[in-house]
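Sample A.
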Amino acid sequence: MVKSILFVGVGGQGIILASKILTEGLLKFGYDVKMSEVHGMAQRGGSVTTQVRFGDKVYSPLIGEGEADVVVSFEKVEAARWINYLKKDGKLIVNDYEIFSLPVLIGKENYPTNIEEELEKSGVNFKLFNAAKIAEEIGNIKTQNMVILGALVKSLGLENLDWEGVIKEVLPEKLVDINTKAFKYGLSI
């Protein structure tokens, strides 16, 4: 059976790193894994998506509408933008975090204020938490991606694998402790 994970967010949130750690871990633990990433206008705060598919045998990294087992949204508006990719019985993980686009910053548009209400109305199975706040409490806001990754790993039932070892392999030594702490916190969400 193949599982499909769609990561969505805004450039600079660590989406590609989180999906790389997930991919490396899944490969290490014997899964066939395919990954595809789209940077868009990432360096300007634009959308970033990463698609990860894993299982016994995976032929393509691409996830179509209605095919994602899990959509992981690093920013609230992105959850609403990509929800149509979620399977009917899929899970949505949402970082309760807002990044204002340029049109919002210059007053041409308003940031949507009813995203959580819309998600509730949609009937989607979703988990909403503020990974940025948790990461700040841990000691570094840049680790919010690891908090989110921990929550994803738990939702997939893969928490018993050696993720700390994978984090050690992927990250520079000076970043391992704080990111491992953030990941473990995410496992408790």
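Sample B, a different protein:
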Amino acid sequence: MLEKLMVILGAGESGIGTAILAKQQGFEVFVSDGGAIKPNYKNDLVQHQIDFEEGSHNEAKVLSANIVMKSPGIPDKNALVQKIRQQGIEVVSEIEFAFRYKGDSKIIAITGSNGKTTTTALTYHICKTGGADCALVGNIGYSFARQVAEAPKALYVIEVSSFQLDDISTFKPDVAVITNITEDHLDRYEYNINNYIKSKFNIVANQTADDVFIYNIDDPTIQHNLTKFNIRSIKAPITMSKELPEGAYLTNAQMHLKWKGEDMQMSVEDFAIKGKHNQYNSMAASMAGTAVGIRKEKIREALQTFESLEHRMESVAVIKGVEFVNDSKATNVNSTWYALETMQKPVILILGGVDKGNDYTALKELVQEKVKAIVCMGLDNRKIHETFGDIVSLMVNTENAKDAVQAAFHFAEKGDVVLLSPACASFDLFKNYEDRGQQFKQAVKDL
């Protein structure tokens, strides 16, 4: 009998990880990418003797698959994906495939529109500090599938996107976290927020009464939708608005972590990462650590020693009394709102890029209160000018990081902060948000 054929669409990190794991599990594997495959990923395929093509799709071969893993970046309305579905071929996401081979390992899975990367990294730091045999996978670092194939661990801390949650059938985290839900990626969900919400709540779809669900009850979208889904797991809410019998809450600048009759307290002054949104991230991560049995003193130690991530509110330099902050990972309006909300000094804001249907009005109040100048960095800045033109008198257009940084420095005075928090995707001028952040940092160094 022939081996089962697994076809993988898209040769990014999740595609390559799945290919390696599928090959290890005895599948015949074929990787097909419509674009060019990066050299490092091509080396992986050659090294593992995996058949691949790039630049086009061999439709007949793809449609002869028993199972298809499609990259999270490929939308369902893609013509080839529709043909695959019409033929009744099983379509899985990378996290679904990896889940089937993880053995007895436990999973903490974290999703949300904002804060998920910080929360995932902090949860991993808590588990690591607490002595767990764990790996940080998903949207950060290695794919879950590659980790399962090459270096299995007892615990996986996974950052998952809504796209990855779209194609799951059995994937079940022991601990699921939804940080918040705001409008993002709506172009992938027929511009219907309810489709996006359903995707996020997929994270709890397969949970049982032994599992834990951590969510932010101060987030109106989560709160409104809790009753619409059949949630069987133990609920562990987080909040800043009231005391809870069980969960994490903040009162008088003290975090309380209440779980199974125990109550740990810690002052938010001791958190290594600052800002209100990071207090939510810290509560969610602490709750996740608690749920997998990390000791209280280790959680306390981890919250004090965590270093924030590159491109996420990253302090770059102080030049002539002007602080430069790289928040290039802010690719939507809500992320920029959080960034502005933490600012204590007058701000020169670098904004703009590829707009995913942004509504900037949510930023107006904070911009009026904190921003003295806006430097636009994108090819089409019309909407930014229309929204803020009447409240910010200093506004200028630039088309690269160097000009943006120089213009911002020109507007700034001692005691100000130059904040790169674009609220947009980066593809008009940069490869990705990392490239945008790197170019910003280089431009600051060149001042």
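Observation for Sample B: The chain has a mean pLDDT of 93.
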